[in-house]
Every structure is written in structure tokens, then in C-alpha cells.
Amino acid sequence: MxxxxxxxxxxxxxxxxxxxxxxxxxxxxxxxxxxxEHLDAVMAKTRQMILEGADIxxxxxxxxxxxxxxxxxxxxxxxxxxxxxxxxxxxxIDHVASDWQELVKHPDVDLVSIVTPxxxxxxxTLAALEQRKAVLCEKPMALNAGEAALMVEKAxxxxxxxxxxxxxxxxxxxxxxxxxxxxxxxxxxxxCNYVFRSDYRGIADRAWDWWSDEKMGGxxxxxIGSHVVDSFRWILSAEVTKVLGMLTTHIKERPDKNGxxxxxxxxxxxxxxxxxxFSDGPxxxxxxxxxxISVVESGKYExxxxxxxxxxxxxxxxxxxxxxxxxxxGAWRPVQVDQDHMAxxxxxxxxxxxxxxxxIAICDALRAGxxxxxDAATFEDGHRVQVVLDAIRASNESGCxxxxx
Length: 405
Known about the structure:
Elements (H helix, E strand, L loop, with lengths): L2 E4 L2 E4 L7 E5 L14 H13 L4 E5 L12 H18 L9 H6 L5 E4 L6 H10 L3 E4 L7 H14 L3 E3 L7 H11 L6 E9 L22 H17 L3 E9 L4 E3 L7 E3 L5 E8 L5 E11 L7 E8 L2 E5 L5 E5 L6 E3 L14 H19 L8 E2 H20 L3 E2 L2
Parallel strand pairs: 3-4, 5-6, 6-7, 8-13
Antiparallel strand pairs: 1-2, 7-18, 8-14, 9-12, 9-19, 10-11, 12-13, 14-15, 15-16, 16-17
């Protein structure tokens, strides 16, 4: 059973059902009965919900009802924060923060988990490291290799736990695959393939957001390509030496969610076709790789990694199933793998299963005062991935193979 402690309160997930009360500080939310616009009414509603058994309060300042107007971050904060302060004061909640800088500085914060758009990763990371906080940064690590290199430098100076959220490393199937490859089960690697297929962004009327903006670090290459590159590097224990990339934007504009009927241009890729060459190493000799990534592709969801060697092949699928094909067999045979645990309430999928194991390992390291987690992607790994991503973008512009420095 997993638990979460916030201040004086501990939530033991799975022990019972927790009730959440909703306060909509907005005039146009879905449910009229949840709308409260004046502070006295808000506090009366809050007291009523707590008396009726609410454990958690959700305070909403931006409606997502179809046709509702979009407001700025500042206006949303003006709606929400006075309510948060009033509730905190009445119910003896000691710490309330209106911005992330204040929160990062708080002495009770042990780790800063950065899940914001990539354009903000460096700023938040450097602020956290300056306070000597442990950091878990989402991928891609930064906007470019220059930013990532600075983050590596500051993390080394701080001497704290600093990791990139490549949670797929913690799937049992991928760990077994790596162990089999390293033990020589399929001989020397000749080539590897990665297929990622989703229609997550295939609906053309999905609203424009940071994913659509190159300046904010959006796009399939950064979001999924970073996992592809990290998976190849970690599984093969080899570096990418050359890349050829073709990035495509199929949906070229999306509805502007700030209201009206306007459209905004999409400046990021939603499909990536990639070719790789790898360094020679203990498990590779003249190895090549390919990846097909799409977030606008209909059909069965795929997140599949294949590795082909001189003695056979290994394949791991989204489901966590691992397969082996000995040379000459003409068939895939299942490899026994322990089922991954997944935290209660998470959506079924490899990302959730991997992150559950990763999160437990991070908490164990923090409790023990360690600055490393076995098998986790470090900031140095994140920087190497970023160097490859930069080379892929350069290749897309030039139409030629690019060397990875």
C-alpha cells in the first residue's frame, strides 16, 4: 500500500475511499451547484463539504466547459489564491505558496519534480539545485544541449540526487531484456528497431497548447524520441554516433483555446522517422537502428522495442511481454517476466508501471541519503540524449546524416 503525507495528513491509498469536494471559483463551470464566487460563500461551502466528509478540496479557477472563455494565468491566480489563503488560515494549514520559487525554497521540500514544458526545465532545475534540493526532471531535459550541459554542471556542484524521468528503464521486461543481451543471449547486436504509434494528437480539433509550440519544447521528437534514444543507449550500452532524421508536421494548425474561432500555427513535429549508427562496444559491432514515432497514427497503440543479434532477437512490447527468437527458429517465444506492480489509481500502461517502480526507488534513495538510484537516467544521460536530439533536428534541416559529437 502506498501513502502520501502532506503536512499533518497522511493518505493511505487503498485503505479506504477518499472524498474530494469541488469548489469552482468561476461563473461558467459545468455544474451550477459547484459555483461559488464570493469569499463568504466559498468558506460556507468549504465548511459544509468538510462536515460532510470531504478529505480533499479541488479549487478551480478556469472552466473547461465547451464554449467557456479562456483566462490568463494571472487572472486565474487572482481567483484562486485568496480562497486558498482563507481556507489555510481557518483550518490551520501552515504553508501556502503562490509561486514555484517560494515552494522550492521551503525547508520541508526534499525533491522537486519538474513536469512543466521543457522551456522551463532549466530555470526551475537551477533554482532547485541552488537550494540543494534533489531534482527529478521530465524529458526532454531541456530545449537544447547547451541548457542541459549547464544543468549537469550545477547538479555536480550541488552534489544532490539529480535524475531524468526515463521510467521505462524500470520495467521488469526491459531489465530482463538488457540482462539477456549483456549475457550474450543473442550474440553481438546487428540492429534495433523502435515503434511508437498513437493517435493521442490525431484529432485535428484538439486545442493548441505548448505541445504545438517549438519554442516551448513541444513535439513528438522531444516527448517520445528522448525515450527512444535513452532506451537504445541503456539497452545496448553504446552511444549514438550518427543520425538521420525526418520530422513532419501533419496537423499544421489547431484551434486557439483562448476563445473565438481562430486557429494557431503548429510549429512542432507529430511524426519522426529516424535512423541511427552506434559505437562499437561489448555488445555492438557496426550496429544500426531505426525508429518510427507518430502521435497522429490510428490503429493499435504500440510502444515496442526490438533488438537483433548474431544469435537471435529480443522484443519487448507495451504490455510488458518479452519475446525471444533464436536464429533460424522463424518464431517468437515468450520469456518469463515477473509482472510489474502499478500504484493504485494510475492508468494502465508501461509508463505507469515503470514510474511506480522508479518512484519507490527514488523514495528509498532519499530516505537513505543516497545521491544515486541504480539504473536511473542521470543528468549526464539526459545531456547525451539532448545532444542526439539536437543532431536529429540538424539532420532534418540539412537532409543529411549528422555526426553526434
